Predict the structure.
Amino acid sequence: MDSSFKIPFYAKSALIFISVFAFVYTMYIGQLIIIPIVFATIIAILLNPLVNYLINKGINKIVAIIMAVILAISITIGLLYILSSQVNMFRETYPLLKDKYHITSTQFLQWVSTKFNIQHSKIDTWISESQSKAMNNFAIGEKLSEVGQLVVTGMLLPVYLFMILYYKPLLMEFTRRLFRKEDHIAVTEVLVNSKRIIQSYLVGLFIEFIIIAILNSVGLLLLGIDYAIILGITGAILNVIPYIGGVIAIALPMIMAFVTKDSLTYTVLVFAVYIFIQFIDNHYVVPKIVASRVKINALISVIVVLIGGALWGIPGMFLSIPLTAIIKVIFDHIEPLKPLGFLLGNIVPTASKFAFVKKKK
C-alpha cells in the first residue's frame, strides 16, 4: 500500500504563490537592511582576489582587508565627486537654462496658439495647473527621508564589506553545512560559478564604463560642448544603470548644449552622437563584453530590471542582472529546476523539439 501523501496541483500552486508573495514582500520591507548587505557581498566577491593576493605577499589578513576596503571607498568617493561636480555645474548654469527655457517655451506656445487656433490664456492655465499638481506631488519630507537612508546605507556598507571579507571562511563553512555530504560537490560548483559570474560581470561593466566614457568625451569635444569630459564620464557612470541610465545620460549633454549654444542644431547633434554611441554599446560592447559573461537572454534581462526597479528602485535595477545570473546557476544545478535555468539562459534552439502527431481515425 502506497502511504505517500501527494499534494494536489491547486494546493501546490497556492503554496508557491504564497511563498513568492511572502518573499517579495520581505525583500521590499527589508530593503534598507538587505540592499547594503547584497552590495557589500558583491563588492567583497570582487575584492576577494586582491585580499588573497595581499595575504600571499605576507600582509596581515586584517590589514589586507582594510587596504581593500579603503581602495573601494576611494573609488566610490571619486565617482561621487564627479557626480557632485556635475550637480554644481548645472547649478551654475540653472539661471541660463531658466531664461533659455522661458524664451523657447514662449515661442513654442505662440506657435501652438497660432497653428491650432487655441487661445494663449487656456494654454497658460493648463501649464499652471500642471505645475501646481507636480509641486503637490513632490513630497519634501519623503525626499529628505530617502537622502537620510542613503547616508545610513553609505555608512554601513564599509562595515558590512569588512565583516564579509573577514568572516568569509565562516560563511562558506556555514553554507556547506546546510546541505548533505552528497550535495557538497554541487554546492561548491554553485558557489564557485556564482563568484566567477559576479567577478566577470563587474569587470565587464568596468570595461564598458571606460569605453563609453571615452566615446562620450570624444564626441562632445568634437562638437565643442562645454564640460565635455566630465559630461562623458558622468554619462558612462549613469550608463551602468540598465536601460534608464542611458536615457538620463543623453539628457544631460543635450541640456548643456541647449543652454550654452545659440543654435538647436548642437542639441540635435548631441542627441545623434549619443544615439550612435548607444547603438555601439547595445550591439557590440554589451553583447561581447558584459552580456557574454552573464549568460542571461535579453527578454529576461528587461523583465528582471523592471522588477528590480519596482522592488528596490535604482539599486534594484543594478543588482537585478547579477542576482538573476546567480539564480540561473542555482537552477542549473538542481534537476527539477533545470528548465527554468534554460529559460533564463541565452541559448536559443534552432527549432522546437515538439512533434505534433495527428491522431489516426
In short: Confidence is low (pLDDT under 50) at residues 137-145. The radius of gyration is 26 Å. The chain has 13 helices and no strands.
